Amino acid sequence: MYSDLNQRLKADVRLEEGLQACMNCGICTAICPAAEFYEYDPRSIAITVQSGNEEKIAALLQSDTIWYCGQCMSCKTRCPRNNCPGLIISVLRKLSQETGAFIKSRMGRQQYLIVKTIGANLLQFGYCVHPTSLVPATHPEQGPVWRWIYENMQEVYASVGANLDGDGPGALRKISDKDLDELHQIFEVSGGLKLYQTIEYFSQRKAIELGLTDPNGEADMEKYTQYLLNE
Predict the structure, then answer these.
(1) pLDDT tens-place string over residues 101-135
(2) Whole-structure pTM value
(3) DSSP state, 103?
(4) Are residue 59 and residue 159 in the same domain, yes or no?
(5) Cα 109 vs. chain centroid, distance in angstroms?
């Protein structure tokens, strides 16, 4: 599963753009917002990837570390060698997903929730976030104001000029079937759907490993979802 990691990283064109030649100056870490809040050091990640050490790269793929980056790309603007650790992180994340290494870390396992929420919203509605998917019972962090908006959605959005699920122009308008079909085709041709399936496959294996199964011994992904939400 974890063989030829260095070659697979180099096969991603984003690595060539993201890693010219790191000189270990640490400016990326100094500017990085995530480094302020987490044990996160983009400088050391760039050095590890540049070294080609397969054992250390494998450890990165299985760690929480690569999921701390917010992809703000502040590192790109300051690096004297024109490196971009944020792009390096993107490459590492994709390889972690493809190999199933992501299920080894708590933050990596959250990829399943992202696929089932943002991923599903994109393909169903054409939006990353759609009001109908922010159910108060599963999103208590949105608070009582959102609960009221959710319960009075049509009236609230109409009052601010939005066109919620309506035909024609306007915020939150219904995306046409033609455009949604095109979006599906883009995801299929680009490999996005395959990556979704890969994340689901390894997540199902993790659910079984944790004993979260139905009476037939198959992965119970509802139980797994609750596990992830409370992990």
Answers:
(1) 999 999 999 999 999 999 999 999 999 999 999 99
(2) 0.89
(3) G
(4) no
(5) 10
